[in-house]
Amino acid sequence: MLKRPTAPADLPQSVPVFPLSGALLLPFAQRPLNIFEPRYIEMVDHALRGNRLIGLIQPQDTSEESPRGRAALQKIGCLGRLTHFEENGDGRYFVILEGISRFEIVSELTVMTHFRQCLISTERFASDFEREFGQEAVDRERFLKMMRDYAEFGDFELNWAEIERTGTADLVNFCCMVSPYGAKEKQLLLEARSLEDRAETLIAIAEYEMARAGDNAAPLN
Prior knowledge:
The protein has helices spanning 38-49, 140-154, 160-165, 168-178, 183-191, 195-216, and strands at residues 14-19, 30-35, 53-57, 76-87, 93-108, 116-121. The protein has a five-stranded mixed barrel. By secondary structure, it is α+β, with helices and mostly antiparallel strands. It starts with 13 loop residues before the first strand and ends in a 5-residue tail after the last helix. The protein is built from six helices and six strands, in the order E-E-H-E-E-E-E-H-H-H-H-H. It is globular.
């Protein structure tokens, strides 16, 4: 499969899965990954020989970044397609996954590979294949206000010219992926029922963080 899948029917029934705590991938967004563990080097080799698809998913226990064995996984992850890879001299890979669609695990397969593989379903997430689906419902001005407030709170600059050129769906998903929040918050953002819900969830998390920081600020003498 050398081209991007455009519907659930284009996907295989099973895919290799990459359990990674705190990692978020969303449709049409890109996530760089450094691959160095032998089991995941094997996984990338497998994907490159085949359809280039890998499912990124969080483990339920986030105390380990990528647990071994058959540690329990979250029910929902995001399927990504390898769009770029570089092989380093020490046997490591640098890869970029482009988000295709969220998926639900149906069952885990018993396999001989060192990496895990699962039967998946994307039927619940058919709208993920449409890049701009749901963006008209997002309050873009409210979202941009949150970005301005958070940039001031974090004391960093934003490229507003680039932001203005970015579609609302891409902007929301990118901000969710680069947000500094933990595994629990990232899973909430992934599982949001709609793009509007995802945007409002990120706004609520950011506003809570800023308000809490304000409450904890030392009083002036």
